[in-house]
Each structure stands twice: as structure tokens, then as C-alpha cells.
Design a protein that fits this description.
The protein is α+β, with helices and mostly antiparallel strands and about 120 residues long. Helix content is about 25%, strand content about 45%.
Length: about 120
């Protein structure tokens, strides 16, 4: 079995490169992604629809993982700061992420955060 923490870190690095094909390659086709303040999405199309608008809005993306734990089998949790560079400067979003890995791919992703810092990325 692939190392679940490596799979999650690979996906995060692809997000920072804004490489959506590499991001989606880390997920099962039926994966569920839930930004807890927002409704969950499923599948590659849903994950792309959720991630692409706010990642593409930034000229740079830098997700800094501060702490990460894994049970070595199917669960990874990380505490991180998701950073997005906009024309007005960096937006920093403290996040707690929970990832479920199945058969070497991410099957579930839940991020817990405050929507306040995200408003500039969402046009608000």
C-alpha cells in the first residue's frame, strides 16, 4: 500500500503548482471533498469545480503544512496555512484537513476553516 501521507502531500504540492490534472490523479473517481462551511462535492468534476476557481484566482499558491499525523493505513490529518497571492497581497487561511486514503488514492477530504479570509478569493 502506498504511504497515505505521501499521497496527501503529493496532492497538496500539485495544488501549489496549480496542476489540476495531477491533483485529480490523486483522487478516486468517487471521492468526496467537503470544505466544511460549504456543501460537499463528489467525483473529479466536483473537486475540480470546487478547487479551480479559487486556486486559479491566485497568482501563487503556497500551502504550508505545520503538523501532520497519519495512522499509516488510511487516515491523514494535517494542520496547515493555505496561502494565496492576489494583486492586493497574500491571503492566509488556517486550515485543519482530514484525508481518507483507499487503495493509494484519496477517497475523502474534509477541510475545517473560517470562511472570512476566503471572501476575497470568492469575489466577496
Amino acid at each position: 500500500m502506498s504511504n497515505p501521507e505521501h499521497i496527501v502531500n503529493t496532492m497538496m504540492a500539485a495544488c501549489c503548482r496549480k496542476d489540476f490534472e495531477a491533483v485529480l490523479a490523486c483522487f478516486h473517481e468517487d471521492a468526496c471533498y467537503h470544505n466544511i462551511p460549504i456543501e460537499p462535492v463528489t467525483g473529479h468534476a466536483g473537486i475540480r469545480a470546487m478547487l479551480e476557481p479559487f486556486i486559479s484566482a491566485a497568482t501563487e499558491v503556497d500551502w504550508v503544512i505545520h503538523n501532520s499525523v497519519s495512522n499509516g493505513q488510511n487516515l491523514v490529518m494535517n494542520e496547515r496555512t493555505d496561502r494565496f497571492l492576489l494583486p492586493t497581497g497574500w491571503i492566509e487561511l488556517p486550515v485543519m484537513g482530514v484525508f481518507e486514503v483507499r487503495e493509494g488514492k484519496i477517497a475523502g477530504w474534509r477541510d475545517y476553516f473560517d470562511m472570512g479570509p476566503m471572501r476575497p478569493l470568492l469575489g466577496g
